[in-house]
Specification:
CATH class of the largest domain: Alpha Beta
Distance between the termini: 42 Å
Shape: flat
Number of helices: 10
Strand content: 15-25%
Radius of gyration: 22 Å
Strand order of the largest sheet: 5-6-10-8-9
Length: about 270
């Protein structure tokens, strides 16, 4: 078993503090490193570019680093051979088919919030963030959204009530990762998880098929997309949820005012 002495611990802590104090934008550092070359044949990438309605970004292209960077800087060194920014569901199908044809591993990215780096790859990153449509049907109590809609998109669409979807806690989280992973939020204790409200979805499978799934159609796959199976059965391009009523009970609101904050921070910064 490795042991850490008190002196080593203090030294390590001091070094960490120094590193934090001299923090530099990781993308800026990353940009100075040698741009990796994709393992995929250039002609194959050119073929994919011509087949897309959206855009294809390669290492060295303007915006590639920002488009491929994960939320967690720990995984910045994992760079895709290319980033396909899909304009529609058809582009997702094209990307999956192209990956199968060329032996390239595909990984989907919606909100890009995964701190575990699940949307990083050295293959093709299939970026669906443009699939963020939102259609609320208050009469039926339902909402249908694109696969990359964010928590924030839901909050804006339903901010006036009387219905809402129990979502996550971070505005920038995509509904794909949230739903397929369960969906724990502030209202889960009374309204349930986000996945509890999933009624239907459209998914592009690893074979490049587009399937509609719900409780009676492809029901096994529908079950697998409701938070309990890792969300690795394809790329979900849309979700349909039922909504819950916004409670009409009174809400207690309070805040603490700290009048000495400016002086305290000035002292700490001195």
């Amino acid at each position: 078993m490795n042991t850490l002495s008190r002196r080593s611990l203090v030294s390590t802590g001091a070094a960490s503090a120094l590193a934090l104090g001299t923090y530099i934008n990781p993308l800026a550092v990353f940009a100075r490193q040698a741009t990796p070359q994709p393992d995929v044949d250039v002609s194959a990438l050119d073929d994919l570019r011509t087949r897309l309605n959206g855009t294809l970004m390669l290492p060295g292209d303007s915006g590639y680093l920002a488009a491929s960077a994960p939320a967690n800087g720990r995984y910045l060194d994992i760079q895709p051979a290319a980033v396909a920014r899909c304009a529609d569901e058809a582009d997702v199908v094209t990307c999956i088919q192209w990956c199968n044809e060329n032996g390239v591993s595909p990984v989907g990215r919606g909100g890009g919030h995964s701190y575990a780096g699940f949307s990083t790859t050295t293959g093709l990153m299939i970026d669906i963030r443009r699939l963020n449509s939102m259609a609320v049907d208050t009469r039926e109590g339902m909402v249908t959204c694109g696969g990359a809609a964010l928590n924030n998109d839901f909050f804006i669409a339903t901010e006036d009530g009387p219905l809402f979807l129990p979502g996550g806690t971070c505005l920038g989280v995509g509904m794909g990762g949230l739903t397929l992973g369960g969906g724990i939020g502030y209202n889960a204790h009374w309204a349930g998880l986000t996945c509890d409200h999933l009624q239907a979805s459209r998914i592009v499978t690893g074979a490049g098929e587009v399937l509609d799934i719900d409780g009676s159609t492809n029901s096994d796959l529908y079950w697998a997309c409701r938070g309990g199976a890792g969300g690795n059965f394809g790329i979900n391009t849309s979700f349909t949820f039922d909504l819950v009523e916004v409670p009409q009970d009174g809400i207690a609101y309070y805040r603490f005012e700290w009048t000495g904050a400016d002086a305290a921070f000035a002292t700490l910064a001195a």
